[in-house]
Amino acid sequence: MSGSLSALLRALHEAHQRVHLLHKEIEESQRAVRRLEQQLAEREKQLRQLQEEIRQLKVTLHDREVTEKQLHEKVTRWQQQILGASTAREYQALQSQIENARIQLHALEDEMLELMDKLERRQQELPEREKLVSETRAELHRLEEQRRQRLEAIQDRLTQARADVARFEAELPPELRETYQRLVRQEPKEALAPVEHGSCMGCFTETTLQMLQDLRLNRPVVCKSCGRILYLIETS
Ligand SMILES: [Zn+2]
């Protein structure tokens, strides 16, 4: 690169910033996919719960039907027995058994009606829930495809930005290298800062006249307050 040290440092700083922004963009798109994955998992879970509830309701309903059938059979049997009852006591006992069974049957039928009603309502919810899951799944698929294409473009720009960083780094004056390496290890985009209106834009501390003078003479200058490598933004 031809030109001043400030121009080189500025180009290097901007390349670091580009790398940082591209990384952020990658992370952001990963987060968006992850959010949708979580939403899909939640909706799938709700669907499974509904399917399980329907299954349980069917099992319970079947169980009650069996009990109802058995009770009916008992009542029929007792009704036949009552015809052949030999004593008033036997007659009374059977009569009371039949009466109790009828009360039970009545309660059982009420319960079954409730169960059937609930089962019907849950089954009506099912298509909506299934639709929600398949729609979310399709949306996730679209987003992932979009992200894949986006990533390819970002990767190209990232490769370019990294190549720029390497190219500008190679041109750094030897006396800056150690400081630069140390700063870059901490946070690359924070290694450098422009000086604007006589202040370091990294920490907003004023620079001395001597520092400005050195910068204009292409000498390496480091901010006394934050330690960043400084450069001038050339306006002409
Ligand atoms: Zn500073």
CATH architecture of the largest domain: Orthogonal Bundle
- Strand ordering within the main sheet: 2-1-3
What is the N-to-C order of secondary-structure elements (H for helix, E for strand)?
Answer: HHHEEHE
Percent helix range = over 70%
Determine Rg (CA atoms, Å).
Answer: 40 Å
> Based on DSSP secondary structure assignment, what is the total number of beta strands?
3
What is the CATH class designation of the largest domain? Mainly Alpha
Bound small molecules, by name, code or SMILES, are:
zinc ion
- Tally of alpha and pi helices: 4
Spatial gap, N to C terminus:
18 Å
Mean pLDDT: 95
Largest sheet: 3 strands, mixed
The gross shape turns out to be rod-shaped
Topology:
Blueprint: H1 5-83, H2 88-170, H3 174-186, E1 192-196, E2 199-200, H4 209-216, E3 229-232
Parallel strand pairs: 1-3
Antiparallel strand pairs: 1-2
Bound molecules: zinc ion.
The site of zinc ion has 9 residues, from loops.
Structure description:
Helix content is 78%, strand content 5%. It has helices spanning 5-83, 88-170, 174-186, 209-216; strands at 192-196, 199-200, 229-232. A 3-stranded mixed sheet has the order 2-1-3, sandwiched between helices. It folds into 2 domains: 20-168, Helix Hairpins, CATH 1.10.287.1490; 172-236, no CATH class. The protein is built from 4 helices and 3 strands. The model has no long low-confidence stretch (mean pLDDT 95). The protein has 236 residues and is mainly alpha-helical. It binds zinc ion.
